[in-house]
Structures are given as structure tokens and as C-alpha cells.
Amino acid sequence: MTDKQEIAQILEEMGSLLELKGENPFRIRAYQNGARALLNLDEELSKVIEEDRLTDVEGIGDHLAKSITTLAKTGRLPEYEKLKKSIPPILLEMIELQGLGPKTAKALYQKLKIKSISDLKKAATEGKIAKLKGFGAKTEKNILKAIEDQKTHQNQYLWFDAMEIAAPILKELKELKGVKQAEICGSLRRKMEIVGDLDFLVGSDEPKPIMDWFTSKKRGASIIAKGATKGSIRLHSGIQADLRIVPTDQFLYALIYFTGSKEHNIALRSLSLKKGFSLSEYGFEAKDKKSVMPKMKDEKGFYRSLSLSYIPPELRENLGEIEAAAKGKIPKLIEEGDIRGSFHNHTAESDGRNSLQQMIHEAERLKWEYLGISDHSKSSVQAGGLSEEKLLEQVEIIKKINRAKQFKTHVFTGTECDILPNGSLDYSDEILKQLDFVIVSIHSSLRQDEKTITKRIIKALEHPLTTMLAHLTSRLLLKRAPSLANINKIIDAAIANKKIVEINGSPMRLDMDWRYWRKAAEKGLLCSINPDAHSVEQLQFVNTGVNIARKGWLTKADVINTLPLKEVSKFLN
DNA sequence: GCCGTTTTCGGCCCGACTGTTTTCAGTCG
Fold first, then answer.
1. C1' of B10 to CA of A24 (Å)
2. Strand runs labelled E in A92-203
3. Which pLDDT score, from 0 to 100, does residue A290 have?
4. Which nucleotide is nearest, taking the CA of residue A59 and each C1'?
5. Class in CATH terms, A336-572
6. Residue A291 has what pLDDT?
7. How far is the CA of A134 from the C1' of B22 (A)?
8. Does domain A260-326 bear CATH number 3.30.210.10?
9. b (16+ CB within 10 A) / e for A426-439
10. Which of residues 128-187 of A touch strand B (CB under 7 A)?
11. Which regions of chain A are under pLDDT 70?
């Protein structure tokens, strides 16, 4: 078992099992931290194990290193199996329910002999739970609600979808009377590709009407919690939204605190403790009377007070940003305005919705200097892949449009050429030669084993006419798992062959994953941020791609489509 | 179970809300 995710999941589960046993909470957290450390590992696990470097990873000590190694080598872990046997499986299921923790789950199991979620539902429906000591009618009702909620909501949402829901709420919040400051926080602000809920923070000295507005009937499908300064609702779309209201003079600290990540905050707190201050969501508190914290007015000032350069929200994952900021080495991240065009866009000739002209027109409106057209190749029958004749016809049309200077935006001719199962390309060299650029990608035989699919992609990267690789793993977030392709080997092959790797900006792809980019770019990998647009509206997906590039520490210099037209043309020749 | 400029033992974040209590335990973020 070399899949990090599988092993991390087992460690995570061990944490939950220990929690049900009533273990030391810090031991539980050690397992959770270990699982997270494993997920964030940007190297191949088997390599780290082979070189005996697991304990170098922060959060993994001797014990966890041994457990991970055993799991990787044998696929089993006796300690885990023993632990699992000692806990009835229903307890694990129960703590997945909102509002139900280990103590409650155990009590229900012991007193009512609950063996399944349907037992639990039955007991609640029959009013048996309310009769237990320490329980009441409300708890019973909440349990039934939690069972329903779990069925209907997966509690995971694409960043783009969540933002579309959050943005108008933020706008309304800002317009409310008494709201001095308002901001989106949490993983949404950190631009994580998947978020679990929406976090809003408001600075105000009269919270009551704001909380009333937030929790009003028309807004939420249901109210999860409502206090004076903290409230949670479930929106009609199923996503949970939290609001926290703080006094205006505490807004800055709360903004830092609720933006997170949790791990980033813990690192900040321990750093400030070293400087003699205890940090919380309400501010700094001097341990001795002598220390005086400098006044600060914004996040830049906040980080400066800890002798750190400013850390943009996207980087706040405790993956090296604190160390970098201490040395003044936070890079100037790429911005939306740096983008001057894009490749990988489709027209109605294959599976796009809009015509070539409509696409160029929109690119012109966006003030792009260039637009690459890359319809599917002939093997992608399901996507209306172009025959050789059709493709060459399109090339002629584009050339004519360019010559006539019909648009201010220059159009590059290209293709999204299938990498066939054996690694060869879907068009002959003779055809590919006539294009300005060639994107290669996989759309079939996605479930090949690691060796085969990695070799297949590398072969395509070695093809002299290949320009860039699109959606490296073919993953569809929340829908389809990534292929088994070995990402690090592909990064190395792309660098060796001077090929570009795409960040696919489609909100459900965002592939290659941001966790690999920092190191890959350091090694010299060049990126293209592409919208993979299938309609004029989707050209804006390039911005979702920029978000991910920022999370991957990329600068303007790492991204090919920040170059002006002249230089890009030179690069493609 | 992890970690170490308070360093191999003893810390490890803590405040808000809910529901059931009548002063607080459990859950969550």
C-alpha cells in the first residue's frame, strides 16, 4: 500500500478510535497531525521510506514512521486491527453525525444497544433517547436531523461553487447597517480547491440585528446555532454558513484567526509566545508587563509585529510559509492581472458551446493578447474530436482571421491531442507540425496501472512536437479519483524535455495539484494556466487557475501565459 | 504520540454555543 491517502485515512481512523477509547487528547491529535503531514508530503512516499526519512517530516515521529512503513510494506497494521476490533463499528459511524461526539455515541451504544444508524433512527423516532438521563427531546430531534442531513449533504463543495454562494452574502453583509468590516474567512479565503462550509466575519459594535438578519428564515433552510456573536445556518443549497461578529477593534485578530489554517495559527501562536505574547482571536497579551506590542492596522502590520513579511492567505497552510516569511523570502505571487492570454480552449467544432468567432470576441473583451484554440483530437469521439481535414480547415480559418486583423487578440492554432493508450499521439507528425502548439492529454484508459500510465505520459512528453501536458491526473474533484500517474516522475520528464505542464483552471480539475507546484517550479518546471473553456463564460476559469498557482507559490515568471504576445510567439517557435 | 533557544519530561489553544442542567459537560471550529 503506497497510496498516501489510504494510509492517511487509516491514521485518521486510528485517531477517532482512540478518541472513542477516551485516550489522551494529544495522542489523538498526534494521529490526526500525522495523517495530515502524510497528505501534504510532496514526495513519493516509497522513496521517503526507502531513504529512511519519514521522521524528518514534521508531525511524524518514531512510532508513526514505523506504522506508516508497516502499512506501506505489508498493507496491514496489527496495532490498527487490534484497536479496530476493540471498538464497535457503529461508534465510528455515529461520531460522523453533526453534534454527536464520542461521549454521546458511547452512551447511546451502551444504554440502548444501538448497532446501526437505522437502530439509532428507530430509537429516536420512538422517543427512547429523550428518556435517557442527560438527554432530552431536543437532542433526540437533533439526532434525527443529523441523520437526514448526512444523507443529503456530502459537506464538500468546489471552491468555485461555494464562492458563487458566498459572494452575494458578503455583499449584503457589507451593506447592513452597523457593519464596519466584513470578510470571507476560512478555507474559502485560502482558496482551497474544496471547502466544507462558508465562514463570514463581521466587525461591528451592535451585533444583534446582524445576527438576526443572518439567521432569518428566508436566508437559511435551518438554523444550526444562534448566539450573540456566533451563528451557524444551513443554506438551501445544503452548505453550512457560519457568522462570527466581533468588536471592530478586534476585527484584525479575528480575521487572522478565522482565516487559518488551524496549523498556521498554531505556528503563529507558538512564535508569539517566544516573543512573550499570548495570541488569541482577540489579540496579543503580554506575559510580562514590560513588553509592548506595536500598534498595527492591517494584516501586513500584524505579520510585521512578529518579524515576518506578509503571508497571503493562500499560503497559510503551515507548509513552510512561516519560515520563508521570517527570512523575507515570501515570493511575489502571480496575480489575475498578469495573465495575457491562454491556451487550451474549445469551440463548438468539438465539444464547446460557442463558435470560434465568439470565443475570440470574448478574449478580446477580456483584453487578452492571444487565445489558443485546442479542440479535441479524432479519438475523443465522445467530445466530437476533429478529423485531420476538419482540423486543417480550422487552421486555415484562424490564419485568415489573423491576417485580416479581424480581432485585436491574436489566435494561436492548436489541438488538445489525445495520448493514446500506448503513449503515441492521435495525429501524425505531419498534421501536428502545422499547428502553433500541441497540448497532449489523456481521455481514455484512465485506470491503467502506475507504471503503464506514467510511461504513457512520459512518452508523449518526449515527443518533439509536444508543447504542454494538460490535466495531468484526469481527476474530477468530488467525482473521479486521479489516475495512478506518478506525478514526480512526470514533473522530472517534463523538465528534462523542456515541456510545459498545465494548471487546468476548470473548478473541478485544478490539475496539476497545487501541493506539487512549489517544488516543481524550483526545479525549473514551467506552467501554463489554462481555463479549458468550453464556452465564452468559462474563459474566466483562468482565474480559478491563478488561485491554485498562488497556493503553489508560483510567480509571474513561472507562468508562460503572462508573457506578452511577441515573447510567447518566440517561445512557441 | 510529537517535540525541543523553557530540550528527553512535560507540555500540547481555547472560547462560543447547546442542551440539560441549576453549574456544567459535550461538541465544534
1. 14
2. 157-158, 181-185, 194-195, 197-203
3. 58
4. B2
5. alpha beta
6. 59
7. 14
8. yes
9. bbeeebbeebbbbb
10. 130, 133-140, 142, 186
11. 1-2, 153, 220, 286-294
